[in-house]
Amino acid sequence: MIPVPPRRVLVYTIPIALLLFVLPFVVAPYQVALLTYGLTFAIAALGFNLLLGYTGLLSFGHSAYFGMGAYGVAFIVKYFKISSMEAFILGGIVAATAVAALFGFVCVRYTRIFFGILTLALSQVIWSLAFKFFWVTGGTDGLRVPTPSLLGVGMAPGQDKMAFLAHRYYYYVLVIFLVGVAVMWVIVHSPFGKALQAIRDNETRAEFVGVQVRRYRYMAFLVSGVYTGLAGALWVPLNGLTTPDILHWTFSGKIVFFTVLGGFQTFFGPIIGAVVFNYLETYAVGHTVYWQLVLGVVLVFLVLALPGGIVGTAGRVLDRLRKAA
Amino acid sequence: MDTFLIHLLNSLLYASVLFLIAGGLSLIYGVMRIINLAHGNIYAVGAYATAWAVGRLLGGAPVVLLYAILPVGALAAAALGAVLEPTLLRPLYKRAEEYQLLITFGLLLILEDLIRVVWGPYPLSASSLFEAPGSLTIGETIYPTYNLVVIVVGGLAAAALWAFVYKTKFGVILRATSQNMRMASALGVNVNRVYVQAFTLGCFMAGLGGAIIVPQQGAVLGMGPDALILAFVVVVVGGLGSLEGALLGALMVGVVREVGISLFPEIELAVLYLMAAIVLLIRPAGLFGRA
Question: Is residue B287 included in any domain, yes or no?
Fold first, then answer.
């Protein structure tokens, strides 16, 4: 049986989804392109949170899967000379899944701090390879990725790239995003998702109930890697370029940041966090050279004052208002 | 033979600095169970502070005086640590370790930019200290004498730390707190004070590492996170929380890196990270770690 969201969730989500569909007709293309970035990050955060929020594993190496998604696309362009978005997605997911399958096999034996460090060390292996093998990966210059054709239809000749990204590409990403959210909802509310939460809450008890802890963790790791790889594949045509920066461990830190900003104890938190983070970062980078300082202060403030993140805190405030009323 | 000696000295040079960084990281983890992601930035602060102090005094000051101000970086890093622990970390000891990691990641971002605010975006150097002692002739090649100074300082620091942790009363309290914080507290140890002292000592070591290497390498933005990752490899190989492990890990990383640079430069970094991953697989707690 497929779990269907309860009515109160649909009451919030359906109007928001509709709003997202009419948005390109209302706001400037630049804003839509910015939101498209946010949505790709949201897909990554959604995948990341299956591990952190639902399985209780803090990965500091998700840049590897995001980056493999992006480099998978770049390799398809470089070696097969194909520029179809469907092929990009396929290639990105295959590359990310292959790495997640290998790293996950090693990492799921550990938990807590050791899991974090191991994922970090392994992701740095990928980064250093991308950094050093410049004849394959372009080194720090990275690899260019042209604007792809969507469902076989390319960009019209003479069409402005920004208009393309802010309209057709936005809808393409939006549909994949909505499907991704729905699938993730089904996953975390399925018996499999419940088993993951049992593992998170008490590994020993979960094992006694008959959950195959390591196998379930591995499956969660794979799903998480697929989502993050998909996000990387969708991100790279927007950026037009992939560089080793997205493989560096500080990018993993940003994925953690998205999730905590939105609130990792909620389903929708990471999505909100990723979109908000993207605006925050763009704003900070645009207005000051000290953008890392701004982000760092926000993160420290969040951890000290609002550990529930945006969604967690909003939920608590709403509950209190409801009780007071 | 001479090339071998030079490679050996280079490995030891690298290992000395790595030991100072990783030893501090490991000490802090051993006592407080916190992985400080901003530790590399503390090392960078040490490097910048020394380069800045040397630069201010450069106008005609005798070289001996310049060497005397080398430890400025270590003191600056220690002072920073003494401020950070009570203000940012102390409220988090009772929370999940995810939050502890995150706050130190936030601190990493903040320090990265504070360095830029204070010392500007351009690299600082203190190369006059590197050039002053001249060089030695080893066989047919010449080798900078300053590198030997770094190796000696690294060795002395390791010995001093060992004596401090195993031969003094403070060391006993430190180890007791590390083994069982509640029991130590019940026996009358002021745990908060031990924590701030341990954190300060760890930062002092990282700052010293930065201070002694800056005449040779200079101080640049981004040196902190890079050093942190290598220090991670060291503590993972040696065992989190173990000083002997940090020493062995630093030596291993120093040698592997030196061999890697001369034999397989493309995958030198990858080999280091793979080494950490393999050790974690075989001995999850590291070579000297407690499970």
Answer: no
